[in-house]
Amino acid sequence: MIQSKRLITTISVISSAGLSALKFIVGIATGSLGLIAEGAHSLLDLFSTLITFVVVRVSSIPPDENHPYGHERAESLGALGGMVLLAVTAVWILYHSISTIIWHPGAPEITVWSFAIIMISLLVDFWRVKSLKKAAAHYNSPSLASDAEHFGNDLLGSFAVLAGLFVIFLSRYITLPLWLVNRVDAIAALGVAFAALKSFWNIGSQAVRSLMDNVPKELIPSLNKLIEKQEGVIPGTVETKLRYVGNIPYVEAVIGTNRELNFEKVHQLTEQIEKVISKELGTDAVIIIHPEPKAAVNEPYAVTVHAIADRLGLRIHNLHVYLVEQKIWLELDMEVSGLLNLAQAHVASEKLEKALIKEFKSPVHIKVHLEPLNEKPYEAQIDHHLKSEIQKVVQSIDKDAILEDVLITDHGIVLTLTLPLPDDMALFEVHATMSAIERKIRAQIMDVTKVHIDPEPLSKYPVNG
């Protein structure tokens, strides 16, 4: 069962306070530098766990206006602060250990309490390491991982002190070198100091890496490859940034997308990328995808032209691309406001032409037909009488064509037709058939300005029999 961060830190604070007091009392009473060093170490454990006790509460505060990423980094700051205290204590223990070994050797008094307090310390630290490691993995908590590492090294220091006490105890019954007996307790204290310095280095460097947004060097290239596998992303255009705030990954990725994709398709693509990143990093990941339209290799000319027009905010249609003597010819219709005069409209036309020439980087012939854009609906009326007359003309041109509507506008007559055609007819044949019908209608009815033909599969029109 995984205990809560608050419960574990509370128990750890109480046990650190108790162990520190017991070690100091027994160490001072017996004159054991090893136990005094362990007491100092446990006192530092108390400060460290108090820091952890505070930061796990601060880190759980939800994001606010001043902290949009939340308060999770309080744990890394707490771990770093605890390690600074640990380093100071380790240096103090080193100084007194070396001083005892060189200038003031002497064996401390050994009692049953000397062994008892170390055994209790070993049991408590073993429980703390086990509980903290489970909780740190479950909550992905740097401060709990810091304490687990810390108390794991405490175990090594306690074993060193226990070994020193055991050597002194044996000297009562067997003859051991006097230089060893008088210095083994201080040597054990050295073990405590080195264990503390090891914790300082491991946990301190980890906290610094967290605060400096350090991530494993292989992680971002791995994410880039994962993103580039998604259909619609242009290879070589992905740039990803990743940081961890506490245990939550924040991902920002810039992707290049095919310029032929519309907004809806690009949105679907970004959602798909968010899903694969969340699957890789965890469902708590906060992901921002910034798509940028990019020219794909061997991009169709029509896609390029429409992309440039869209970028300039221009509306074009009826685009035709020809290859004439190895030179690209472009012919298109561009819609401009009907309120503009020719000179003003021509400025927009030249703007498009210059952008296309720059984009293609090769000789290109461009002809732009200007069409007025009416941003308001045209006034129109349905003429039922005229419809019956025009229907006869349409039937004479193509007996399957169905005249749906005849609209009378200020600009002329607008016809709407439905044309049933074989289901398997190629689209270019469909277009050619409709164009031929339109030409014939215009030739016979002079006032027609627009012919809309809607092709429908013949299978939708059952044969009566």
Automatic annotation (TrEMBL):
It comes from Pedobacter cryoconitis. GO terms for molecular function: cadmium ion transmembrane transporter activity; ferrous iron transmembrane transporter activity; zinc efflux antiporter activity. It is a multi-pass membrane protein. SUPFAM superfamilies: Cation efflux protein cytoplasmic domain-like, Cation efflux protein transmembrane domain-like. The keyword Hydrolase does not apply. Keywords: Membrane, Transmembrane, Transmembrane helix, Transport. This is Cation diffusion facilitator family transporter. One of its GO terms (cellular component) is plasma membrane. It comes from the Bacteria.
